[in-house]
Write a structure and sequence with these properties.
The chain is mainly α and about 210 residues long. The protein contains 13 helices and no strands. The chain is globular.
Length: about 210
């Protein structure tokens, strides 16, 4: 059962990290084949990619996977499937935070895809809430960990990110995103606060909503 195998490999990665990559790589041809399969097979394979990048990137061990798998994450993040958008957006956020400067050249295109997802009319619909929460989270990670690569578009992206807060459907992502908002405020990040602090009332409203939830 592919999902059971993926779960087992994910557990190994969370425990042994990059040390288990040589063994994990034996399964990559099968997961690559699944990326061409049904939506459910694609989802399982993308989640496996997410786990590899998230849990085994110490010392740049997973940078080599960026070239083959980044196009997959970008394409499926923009896909007309909520589950595929959710797991692909999660993976893009993981890449932005775990791969450091190696991800820099991909940051502008990633920002564009995430922005397009949030501009999708379905982004604020309940049925797409899980995907949207992960897109918002990925955009925040891009702003935090790829600031130099995002460059001048940071203010626009920051305002757009803030406009989707608070998030609440995906509890794990919500906790991370709202903690990230606090970090941005503590750092007096003008991309989030606004050049003249014009976003402060909205930020206070977000924090009040989170505390009252």
């Amino acid at each position: 059962c592919p999902i059971a195998v993926a779960d087992c490999l994910g557990a190994l990665l969370r425990t042994f990290h990059a040390g288990v990559l040589p063994q994990i790589e034996q399964f990559l041809p099968e997961f690559s084949r699944m990326l061409e399969g049904t939506p459910n097979e694609k989802r399982i394979a993308i989640c496996m990619v997410d786990d590899i990048i998230e849990h085994a990137s110490e010392g740049g061990a997973t940078v080599k996977y960026l070239q083959p798998f980044l196009p997959v994450l970008l394409a499926n993040c923009a896909a007309d499937d909520e589950d595929l958008r959710q797991c692909s957006a999660y993976g893009l956020g993981v890449c932005a935070s775990a791969l450091g400067q190696a991800f820099g050249p991909a940051a502008p295109q990633t920002a564009q895809v995430l922005l397009q997802c949030l501009q999708d009319p379905r982004a604020r619909e309940r049925d797409w809430a899980g995907a949207t929460d992960n897109v918002v989270s990925a955009l925040g990670k891009l702003l935090e960990h790829q600031a130099a690569a995002v460059g001048d578009s940071g203010a626009q992206l920051g305002a757009f990110w803030l406009s989707f807060l608070p998030i609440s459907h995906d509890k794990d992502e919500a906790k991370q995103v709202h903690e990230q908002l606090v970090r941005f405020v503590e750092q007096r990040d003008a991309r989030i606060l606004g050049a003249q602090g014009e976003h402060l009332p909205g930020i206070v409203g977000v924090m009040a909503a989170v505390l009252g939830a």
